[in-house]
Design a protein that fits this description.
This protein is mainly α and 66 residues long. The chain is 35% helix and 0% strand. The chain is built from one helix and no strands. It has one helix at 38-60. The chain is elongated, with a radius of gyration of 15 Å.
């Protein structure tokens, strides 16, 4: 993929995605581990859903390869 600023449109408008606050105290990685605690699993699922929404919006607008 080419350098981002060659393709980024300054007028790019993405859909509204609510901000999240990380109060986990955990360490990030590329894989979501199995989580048995319901509240924690729901928090992680919410985070993944927000990320996937942002990724889908960028892909749909051609700013990210799928």
């Amino acid at each position: 993929m080419a350098i981002a600023n060659e393709f980024i449109d300054p007028n790019l408008r993405l859909g509204a995605i609510t901000s999240l606050t990380d109060n986990s105290g955990g360490t990030a990685s590329d894989t979501i581990a199995v989580i048995s605690d319901g509240a924690t699993a729901n928090a992680i699922a919410s985070l993944v859903a927000k990320f996937e929404a942002l990724k889908a919006d960028l892909e749909a607008k051609g700013y990210m390869e799928s």
